[in-house]
Amino acid sequence: MIGRRLLDNLVQSRGILYLFDPIREYEKGDAFENLHGMLAQLSQRMVAAGTFPGGRLPHHLAVCVTKFDEVSVLKTADSIGVLGVDPDDTRGFPRVMEDEDAERLFESLCGVSASGNAELVLRKLKKFFHQDRIRFFVTSAIGFHLPPGTNRFDPRDYQNLVPAPGGYQIRSGVRPINVMEPLLWLAQSLSADQQG
Hints:
Elements: H1 4-12, E1 15-20, H2 22-27, H3 31-49, E2 60-65, H4 71-79, E3 83-85, E4 94-96, H5 99-110, H6 119-128, E5 134-138, E6 161-164, E7 167-170, H7 180-195
Parallel strand pairs: 1-2, 2-5
Antiparallel strand pairs: 3-4, 6-7
Helix pairs in contact: 3-6
């Protein structure tokens, strides 16, 4: 059950940023349960307000697969063939370049849920939102480690968040990947809606 204030904000907004944590999903498997409850409450409120056109929520939805810097996430992306490198990136960081590839990675990561029901997340999103209002992104708030003395990604040594006494530490600075892009896409989509 989500809080009333949050629900009020979601009803009034037209953009949603959905963060999917594949590591948490692998360990706890609660993405579907949390998403289902939120969408059920939101859709009930939208129906009551008469703002549920065509049986779909009117929001633009940016789906962000987080923790791209984690070994298991990067290996999954590599194993399904969705990794590329931006030719303008002098550091050579791997990226998921295409929207369809980001969706494929999301779907693949949902397949290793602790609860076994995360595969329902994508179906639920496509049921509640207009297909042309959903876009997938692959992000990392921390980014990849760059070995000292180099300025290039090393596929043998890239994990930036490592265990340390009392928790974790970042090895070589924060280099966010694809963090602003979902917000920019939402802003552009909402602006286009207002102009159209």
